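Researcher: Go.
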Amino acid sequence: MSELRETAMSSKAWPFEEARRLLKRYQKGAPEKGYVLFETGYGPSGLPHIGTFGEVARTTMVKRAFEALSDIPTKLICFSDDLDGMRKVPSNVPNPEALEEHLQRPLTSVPDPFGEYPSFGEYNNAMLRRFLDTFGFEYEFYSARDFYRSGQFDEILKRAVDKYDDVMAIMLKSLREERQQTYSIFLPIHPETGRVLYVPMKKVCAETYTVTFDDEDGKEWTLPVTGGNLKLQWKPDFGARWAALGVDFEMYGKEHATNEKIYDAICRALGGRAPEHFSYELFLDENGQKISKSSGNGVSIDEWLTYAPTESLAYFMYQKPKTAKRMHFDVIPKAYDEYHQQLRAYPGQDLKAQLNNPVWHIHGGDVPESTLIVPFAMLLNLASVSGAEDKEALWGFIRRYAPEATAESHPDLDQAAGFAVCYFNDFVKPSRKHRAPTDQEREALEALKAALEAYEGPTEDEALQSVVYSIGRERFDPMRGWFTALYEVLLGASQGPRFGGFIALYGVPETIALIDKALAGELV
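Model: Structure:
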């Protein structure tokens, strides 16, 4: 056994813990299908949101961990339930009123409000694939519409007819009495209106593999279960899909956790083996509400990528998947900087620590070097005090701070400078609010100005931090009050960077001038 595999066998990183659990299924060798199958599902009822990406990213992390533990081939599929009926019109699309007449039609039969694709479902599928491709995920995309219509699902649908009473019994236990009277695991697609119908079955025929039902106007229809004439209700669809494809691992949000036993039981009733599961906590918007595709709250994929690279998003996804987390714009700078902190730490770590480092899981063991020598938070503060309108303005300060750095030699830094200007203008600038110093703070700022004017040491972070610290230590207890004053009075923010590093980057004369402006009341 290689050192990597041996070390991974005891790693406490959550993807390795999940991968070891999955490996127990195949201790005697590869499955009959020849590979271990990971699945992630997508409901294209609205524009793909960041939680969708998180599910694929986390599943990929488990897949990579499994590949480090085993030689069994793996495969990841992204399954889009685009045959689902549109239950309500999303609020974040153009001309939503034009979609009202298409309610209950499959998403792949609803016109694309953006006018780019044959249907709304195909538009949303394309948006998802575009991002997954940009990030470099290795996956196969499955469309429910194609899956049902092509015949790939025919055998499992016939088995659902054969086992109709068994599957119905599983479902009826979970339903209220009034719902039991009208429930069916099959949802016919009306041959004339194209709407997905929620109606009881009058007959389910195992000899002809057809279903008979009355539509909403009382007209009787008989349709084959095959060929895309119907779809399964969402809970039976979960279990049937697992059985049809031989899914070995699927993760989903905690809202599915209560249905896990139902999915498993249906999968087994249809002759399949239930997969390993992983239930993660939900993302919340700034108000603590669950983010959703249809309401468009929270941060979208494209919005995150306006202000930070994909790797910072993957880092955020890696952290504590079992804990509910706020997903708002203010989490981006912290995730950005922490990702690069982990990148810088990686080369000096032993193998055990590297396998516990999020960047191993983000990059599948092929971890790049960080060239971000100035933290993103620092670049934001620099943009704030300098009024930079583009990244070249920030490079004017960066070149003085690190003369050897160029955009070519430090691409992470160049990228971060551009993101910092965008983030500052969109989020920091509108909410920035300087305040006047108190008498105690004014005296301290005057002392700091005098110390900087007399300073003849190196323009380095630690040396300048010592100057800042000595001024505060003599005047503030606790010291937090001193740094809060620096941030609120000089930077117009409630928190900020190590101030010595800021002075080194911004410049000693420039910092003196900034203090003068604050003392003169020009920043308020």
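Model: Residues 376-431 form one domain.
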